[in-house]
Amino acid sequence: MAIDAQTIDPVAAPAARILIVDDERSMREMLAILLRREGHDVAVAENGRRALEFLNQRPFDLVVSDARMPDLDGLQVLRHARSINPAVIAIMITAYGSPDLIKGVEELGVNDYVEKPFNTEVLKFRIRKELDRRRLHQENVLLKRAMHTAHHFSNIVGSSSAMLEVFELVDTVAATGSTILITGESGTGKELIARAIHVRSPRSERPFVAVNCGALTETLLDSELFGHVRGAFTGADGNKKGLIEVADKGTIFLDEIGEMSPMLQVKVLRVLQERKFRRVGGTEEIDADIRIIAATNRDLAKMVADGQFREDLFYRINVIPVRLPPLRERGDDVVSLAEHFVAKYAPQMKKNITGMSAAAMTALTGYGWPGNVRELENAIERAVALERSSSIQTESLPEAVRGTIAAPAVALGGNGAAAPSALPETGFDLEQHVQHLEREYIAEALRRSGGVKVKAAELLGMSFRSFRYYMKKYNLK
Fold first, then answer.
1. Of 164, 182, 201, 338, which sits most exposed with the smallest number of CB within 10 A?
2. pLDDT per residue over 116-147, tens digit each?
3. Contact between 17 and 60 (Cβ < 8 Å)
4. 0.85 cut: is pTM over it?
5. What domains are there in the chain, each with its CATH number?
6. Which pLDDT does position 414 carry in this prediction?
7. Residue 117, preceding bond cis, omega within 30 degrees?
């Protein structure tokens, strides 16, 4: 095989542990010098038995072995290497490729073989190619593991009953292959749930492709989804695969499907019904082996009634509906999410922030969060950026969130709050006084509720999560 020097990738291969096995001293030394210059850790064996000793003593990434040797031949050496490490790269060097040798190479699954005499640049190229292929495979495995970890339910923050119901439903339907419609307000995490469904499905090893249907014009979305052929429109200089084709045997996530035009609704309906489609300007039928997960923040049933969305498509995508609750319905999750985002952004900004003040927690739990989790994340990112102390204070929160804290009482009333006139002439520690009052109110609420924390939290108008936080803060049992 002749390879022009200009076609060889100039980027150096990653350093590897390489074993060279050859009974010719000049060949061993030449290969050792060649590969050490490439930055590799090279060991040299003068025969097959010495090679087996090396293989038993230490791990190798790649073995380059001569085919014909007096004691053990190259196939025996490589077979032993593979028995120790099935992933080891095996390259054979031979002066002549006999039928028996070629058969043995095929049975063993040798990565490559080079015939003597050979160009040293060719050998370096092939070694680099095999090492790059192995590195890419390892990175792909790690990426898939990371994806599984990132989208596992334990990493989707939420312990409220509303979210636990969502997790249970998703866990049940992920393996079915059915079309799913995720509904919920903007910022509730619809794509995150869609990715979790994909990761837990039989299609998890295949692509997950997300498309925002509201971000593109009809013409662009048509081309993005279905692809196009050369000459289909001005600027179509060649054939292009659409995202449905890219997602082959995987999952395509159609976010904001309620924004899709009637023409594209018809084309998506055909994909669901026939499992086929055509590229824009094309005549060839292409199979669509995909799972569709759609999402919207609009009321599709009302849109159907108003004639704004196809009824047949609505029923096709609404096979399994999954509703994501807004943050205001998730009660205890606000504090958990806030703590999660503090832990996320503090290291990124090199801030030594480990938590939130009680007042900040009260403000967070008292706010309605119309922007849901996305708004909360933005608020915490802002707070971390502005905060100068070791915990988030109310002053670092957005004004809208701070506005939920009730103004202090100015007179004695039925709630027992002290009037400003009670302020001693010499002054006093306000923060300590407020903490004392908090502790007394929480303790009294526990006494009145007979120790039932849920009832005690209701007496104080607090979420159960916040109530537990204060109990722990003041060491109340």
1. 164
2. 777 888 888 888 888 888 777 766 655 555 55
3. yes
4. no
5. 11-142 (3.40.50.2300), 151-325 (3.40.50.300), 328-402 (1.10.8.60), 424-473 (1.10.10)
6. 46
7. yes
User: How high is the pLDDT of residue 476?
Assistant: 79
State yes or no: pLDDT of 26 exceeds 60. yes
Higher pLDDT, 255 or 28: 255
CA-to-CA distance for 462 and 449, rounded, in angstroms?
Answer: 14
What tokens does 434 get?
């407020």
Nearest CA among 319, 244, 316 for reference residue 285? 244
